[in-house]
Amino acid sequence: MGSSTAETESIKPPDGGWGWVVLSGCFVITGFSYAFPKAISVYFKELMHDFDCGYSDTAWISSIMLAMLYGSGPVSSIMVNRFGCRPVMLVGGLLASAGMIGASFTTNIIQLYVTAGVITGLGLALNFQPSLIMLGSYFDKRRPLANGLAAAGSPVFLSALSPLGQVLLDRFGWRGGFLIMGGLLLNCCTCGAVMRPLEGRARKTTGNGEANAQELKQMLPLKVGEENNNSVKTHKEKHKKKLLDFSVLRDKALAIYIIAKFIVVLGLFVPTILLVNYAKDQGVPDRSAAFLLSIIGFIDIFARPTCGVIAGFKWVRPRMPYFFSLALVFNGLTDVCSARSTDYWGLVIFCVFFGISYGMVGALQFEVLMGIVGTKGFSSALGLVLLIEAVAVLIGPPSAGRLVDAYKNYELIFYMAGGELIAAGLFLAVAFCCCIRRHKTKDSPDAEDPNIQNENNHASHDEDQMHQMSLKDG
Question: How many structural domains comprise the chain?
Answer without folding.
Answer: 1
